[in-house]
Each structure stands twice: as structure tokens, then as C-alpha cells.
């Protein structure tokens, strides 16, 4: 199985991941190789097998609805690329 | 003094042979001297000396723990408050973690001295430490070869005596494979045994932190501190932590060892196979019986892993968006450009490959064919383990198909690199614990023996490794130039 250049670009768009035009071909080749590997999975009949999402088949633990942490905005924003008046700045979204 | 194990160092610190400050200075000096191995991303000299002073005071009061005053290092995947936590990526090159990982807190409370943060494959994606933004790490046994990955900095640092011990993380073999290639002892605990809080996520249902040490006794000491329930990790397992050192001396008389026949087939280097056969013979002498077991679904572990891990990675790494922390591109035209270029410029090639693969596997129309199919195979693999481990106490086999390969040898061929994980990744899919133990050399390069146990049988694995280390001296060998 192989992945086309346009499929690679679609995935890159879905992931909001910039890839250089000159690298698209090599990603297509590598990902096609991975897909070849994955098609081996079809050799095994898995009808009726329950998918396993987690090694312990755990469910999310519940906890009491009490405050355990306070957000320290100043501390967290100290490492942000751009902030102003306690807000994270990004390019204008709505004109 | 840097050649001593944690247990020996703890004794020397108590007898007054040397102080933690002396010891820390000696390690810091060695780190500088062997800078060319590229094991450390950040050396925290000042903090280390402060912790060492505090440790000496604590030792004087008699309230010290075994790790008090022991110079160790953290894989740079564990968040350390106020200290750069890069995860081997340009994306986090400017990231000063605002909080500590639970594992880091635990070492701090034990009074361990952190020397710095260790090099690793970018976001733990790699088997050679060559995907690091900070460059490849060299294997101290042969500096033309890789130390393995992703915890390559950890393994090389412990082997070269640039830290008494180190943390690692293992998603598909990232503790065991570098431990094997660098001739040290590495343990991947049962999934859920060690908290993942503050350990930067790659594939959350597979990631597990663990100790990387000179020997099994040291691994027991480290795991004692690392293991335990943590409210802050929703998949942490709430079970009591046994005393890992208590059972180290237990006899192996009557131990049932299973050799999965799929582990000894085509692809395994014959010299490595012969080395492992000799190790298994040692176990026979220690009173163990050896039988063959079968893991029929094992051959599909690689395809299933390379669906599941990239799928989880593509979701986990979506948080790196250039908005709240980490790398941001210059002059973004609009919000989409900000996301796309920040991620495009901040991530390296292997990370991008896995994000793309995961995005594809999770996208509409392919979800069932890839992701659900892989999860079904994961179930079958896990059942193989359960069945085999109901017949025998532990399984043994290789960690890697061959010894350390050359720097640059496989980096341009990702599929070949993935295939070298054949003996380690199934363990992560099942979630069981496994160790790599030094078992000999092939052409001067270390060979690791893998010991695989049942869920939460870390104490058993440590006992089995320790007994072997009482009758062999592979684990005490030092690479030339690092004595």
C-alpha cells in the first residue's frame, strides 16, 4: 500500500504540521513503508476480539469534586511566547 | 569513588570516607572531562552542589535514605521546576518547567543529588538517540556506535560513570534497548507502577518510567523511590509497593524459565544468541528449569505498535501549538500559520513522521482498519503473555537482534530502525515489566539479556537479575577510557 503526496499533505494539514515541499516525497515514501508493515495485521483474523485501549483495562478513576489546585497564571505565563494583561496573544482571528 | 554502586556509595557516605559534596564534585568533573559523549543536555552544577551540601547535613543527622547524597541524573523528559526540560526537541529548547514531575519530587525528597538532564531522542521517538535536537550521544564502549534510544543519554552516562544512576522512560524499549547496548541494568516496570505525572507524554498507554543502573540491587533501590500510587496520574495503580531489596537473595531453585521460540528465530545475530544461551545456562546452574513457550501473535507487535504509538503521539503532541509555551515561529501571518509553522519548525523529522502516521491512522475511513485493528491485535498479544506467564515464572530472551550499530547507519531508514525494536515493544503493548541485564560481549560490545515477568512482579525480576549478578561479572565491566 502506498500513500500519495496529496494524502501526506492532507494529513499535514489535519495535524497543522508544516512540512517543506521538498520533503513531501520522502514522507510519502517513509509512510508508505510503514503502511506496508501495517497491512501485515490483516493476516490475523481478529473477528470478535475486544479492542484493548489500555494494558490494565482501566477505567478513569473518579475523585471528590473539591479544589486541589490553584492556577498560578503569572508563573505559567512567564514561559509563554507572548502575553499581555494576563492573556495569551495570537494573531488576530476575527477582523 | 565514581565506580561504586549506589549501595556502596551509601556506605561510604555514612562511614565518612567522602562527603556528598566530594562525590558530586568528582562526577561534575567527569561530566566535563567526557563532554564529547554528549550525554547531558543541561548540567545543573550549582543546584547539585546545594543539594549535596543539604545531603551531607542530613547524613550527619542520621535521618538519611539510601539515595541521600547520591549523584544521579534525570532523563530530560521529566519536568524539573525552574530548570530547562527540553525532551530532546527544539520545540522545548526554551521551556523552563513550572513544576516537578512526581518522580523528580520523589528523588528530591529522598535527598538525591541531581547532576543534570540527560540527552534523549526527540520526544522519546527513536532507537538510537540520533533524533535529538542536541545531537547524537556516543556509546562509551565504541564511540562510533549509538548508545540506543530513546534513553540513550541515560544509558551512556551510567555506563561511562557520569552519574551513579539515571532515570529512563520506556514506550517501546527505550530503557531496555539502550541499557543492553551500553551494558547496564535497566528495568521497565509494570504500566502504572511509576507515576507519569510531569513525564512528557509520547504514547500514554505505553509510557513508563524506570531505573537505569549498574546492577539489580541499585535498580531495586531506585525503584523503591520511584514506584507508588500517585493521585495526579489517572492511570497510576493503587497497589502497595513491596520492599524490592528484601527478596534479592532468594534462591532460584525451581524457577521456571520460558524461552519464547519466536524470540530465537530468524533475525537474531548468532553471536548474540550464543551469549544468551550461556546466560541461560548460568540460570540452569542456579537451579532453574528451562522450557520453550510460544507467543503466536508476537510477529504482529511491530505493526500494531507503529499504529498505536503514533496515534497516541499525534493526539499528545497537539498541545505544542506555539501559544502557551515552547517554540513559536517568527512573524506568523495568521493563527493557522502560527500553528503550522511553529510545529513545522519546532519538530524534527522522526516526530513529524509519527504525527503524520498517527493522524492518518486516526482519520475518517481508516480508523477501524488501522487503529481498532491494532488494538485488537494488542489484546491477542497481551493474551499470549498471560498464557505463557501462567505456564512459567518468567520469560527470557534477547533485548536487541544485534549489538550497538554505527552512528548514521540506520537513521535514514526508519523502517529498519523500527524493526530493531522487535523484542521489546510487545512487552509495552501487554504492559508487563521487563529488564535488561548485562550478559556478555560480542566483539567487545555489550549484549543484554531480557527478563520478562508478570504484572507487578518487579521484585521477582530484580531477584532473578541479582542472583545472576552474584555469579557473573558482566555488570561490573567498565568501558576502556572510563575506568
Automatic annotation (TrEMBL), chain A:
<comment type="function">
    <text>Allows the formation of correctly charged Asn-tRNA(Asn) or Gln-tRNA(Gln) through the transamidation of misacylated Asp-tRNA(Asn) or Glu-tRNA(Gln) in organisms which lack either or both of asparaginyl-tRNA or glutaminyl-tRNA synthetases. The reaction takes place in the presence of glutamine and ATP through an activated phospho-Asp-tRNA(Asn) or phospho-Glu-tRNA(Gln).</text>
</comment>
<protein>
    <recommendedName>
        <fullName>Aspartyl/glutamyl-tRNA(Asn/Gln) amidotransferase subunit C</fullName>
        <ecNumber>6.3.5.-</ecNumber>
    </recommendedName>
</protein>
<keyword id="KW-0436">Ligase</keyword>
<dbReference type="GO" id="GO:0005524">
    <property type="term" value="F:ATP binding"/>
</dbReference>
<dbReference type="GO" id="GO:0006412">
    <property type="term" value="P:translation"/>
</dbReference>
<dbReference type="GO" id="GO:0050567">
    <property type="term" value="F:glutaminyl-tRNA synthase (glutamine-hydrolyzing) activity"/>
</dbReference>
<keyword id="KW-0067">ATP-binding</keyword>
<comment type="similarity">
    <text>Belongs to the GatC family.</text>
</comment>
<comment type="subunit">
    <text>Heterotrimer of A, B and C subunits.</text>
</comment>
<keyword id="KW-0648">Protein biosynthesis</keyword>
<dbReference type="GO" id="GO:0006450">
    <property type="term" value="P:regulation of translational fidelity"/>
</dbReference>
<dbReference type="Pfam" id="PF02686">
    <property type="entry name" value="GatC"/>
</dbReference>
<dbReference type="GO" id="GO:0070681">
    <property type="term" value="P:glutaminyl-tRNAGln biosynthesis via transamidation"/>
</dbReference>
<keyword id="KW-0547">Nucleotide-binding</keyword>
<dbReference type="InterPro" id="IPR036113">
    <property type="entry name" value="Asp/Glu-ADT_sf_sub_c"/>
</dbReference>
<dbReference type="InterPro" id="IPR003837">
    <property type="entry name" value="GatC"/>
</dbReference>
Amino acid at each position: 500500500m502506498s500513500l500519495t503526496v496529496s494524502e501526506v499533505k492532507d494529513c499535514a494539514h489535519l495535524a497543522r504540521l508544516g512540512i517543506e515541499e521538498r520533503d513531501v516525497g520522502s514522507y510519502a515514501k517513509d509512510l508508505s513503508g510503514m503502511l506496508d508493515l501495517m497491512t501485515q495485521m490483516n493476516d490475523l483474523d481478529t473477528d470478535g476480539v475486544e479492542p484493548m485501549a489500555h494494558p490494565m483495562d482501566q477505567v478513569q478513576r473518579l475523585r471528590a469534586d473539591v479544589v486541589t489546585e490553584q492556577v498560578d497564571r503569572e508563573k505559567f505565563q512567564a514561559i509563554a511566547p507572548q502575553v499581555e494583561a494576563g492573556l495569551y496573544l495570537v494573531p488576530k482571528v476575527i477582523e | 569513588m565514581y565506580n561504586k554502586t549506589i549501595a556502596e556509595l551509601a556506605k561510604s557516605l555514612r562511614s565518612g570516607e567522602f562527603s556528598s559534596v566530594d562525590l558530586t564534585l568528582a562526577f561534575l568533573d567527569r561530566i566535563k572531562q567526557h563532554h564529547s559523549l554528549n550525554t547531558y543536555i543541561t548540567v545543573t552544577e550549582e543546584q547539585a552542589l546545594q543539594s549535596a551540601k543539604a545531603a551531607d547535613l542530613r547524613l550527619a543527622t542520621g535521618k538519611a535514605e539510601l539515595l541521600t547524597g547520591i549523584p544521579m541524573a534525570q532523563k530530560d523528559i521529566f519536568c524539573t521546576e525552574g530548570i530547562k526540560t527540553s525532551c530532546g526537541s527544539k520545540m522545548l529548547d526554551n521551556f523552563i518547567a513550572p513544576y516537578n514531575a512526581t518522580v523528580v519530587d520523589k528523588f528530591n525528597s529522598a535527598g538525591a543529588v541531581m547532576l543534570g538532564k540527560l540527552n534523549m531522542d526527540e520526544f522519546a521517538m527513536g532507537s538510537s538517540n540520533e533524533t535529538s535536537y542536541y545531537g547524537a550521544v556516543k556509546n562509551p564502549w565504541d564511540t562510533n556506535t549509538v548508545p540506543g534510544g530513546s534513553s540513550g543519554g541515560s544509558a551512556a552516562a551510567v555506563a561511562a560513570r557520569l552519574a551513579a544512576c539515571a532515570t529512563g522512560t520506556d514506550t517501546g524499549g527505550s530503557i531496555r534497548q539502550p541499557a543492553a547496548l551500553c551494558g547496564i541494568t535497566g528495568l521497565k516496570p509494570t504500566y502504572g507502577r511509576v507515576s507519569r505525572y510531569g513525564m512528557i507524554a509520547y504514547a500514554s498507554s505505553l509510557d513508563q518510567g524506570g531505573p537505569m543502573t549498574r546492577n539489580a540491587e541499585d535498580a531495586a533501590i531506585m525503584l523503591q523511590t520511584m514506584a507508588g500510587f500517585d493521585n495526579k496520574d489517572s492511570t497510576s495503580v493503587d497497589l502497595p509497593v513491596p520492599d524490592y531489596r528484601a527478596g534479592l537473595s532468594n534462591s532460584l531453585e525451581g524457577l521456571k524459565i520460558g524461552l519464547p521460540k519466536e524470540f530465537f528465530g530468524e533475525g537474531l545475530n548468532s553471536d548474540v544468541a550464543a551469549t544468551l544461551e550461556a546466560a541461560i545456562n548460568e540460570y540452569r546452574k542456579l537451579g532453574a528449569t528451562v522450557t520453550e513457550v510460544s507467543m503466536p501473535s508476537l510477529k504482529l507487535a511491530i505493526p500494531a505498535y507503529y499504529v498505536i504509538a503514533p496515534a497516541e503521539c499525534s493526539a499528545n503532541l497537539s498541545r505544542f501549538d506555539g501559544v502557551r509555551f515552547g517554540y513559536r515561529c517568527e512573524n506568523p501571518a495568521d493563527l493557522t500559520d502560527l500553528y503550522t509553522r511553529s510545529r513545522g519548525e519546532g519538530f524534527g523529522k522522526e516526530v513529524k513522521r509519527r504525527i503524520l502516521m498517527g493522524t492518518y491512522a486516526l482519520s475518517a475511513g481508516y480508523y477501524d482498519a488501522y487503529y481498532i485493528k491494532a488494538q485488537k491485535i494488542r489484546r491477542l498479544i497481551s493474551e499470549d503473555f498471560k498464557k505463557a506467564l501462567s505456564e512459567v515464572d518468567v520469560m527470557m530472551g534477547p533485548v536487541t537482534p544485534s549489538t550497538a550499530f554505527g552512528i548514521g547507519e540506520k537513521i535514514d531508514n526508519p523502517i529498519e530502525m523500527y524493526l530493531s525494536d522487535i523484542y521489546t515493544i510487545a512487552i509495552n503493548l501487554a504492559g508487563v515489566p521487563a529488564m535488561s541485564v548485562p550478559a556478555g560481549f560480542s566483539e567487545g560490545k555489550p549484549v543484554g539479556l531480557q527478563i520478562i515477568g508478570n504484572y507487578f512482579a518487579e521484585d521477582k525480576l530484580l531477584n532473578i537479575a541479582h542472583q545472576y549478578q552474584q555469579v557473573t561479572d558482566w555488570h561490573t565491566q567498565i568501558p576502556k577510557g572510563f575506568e
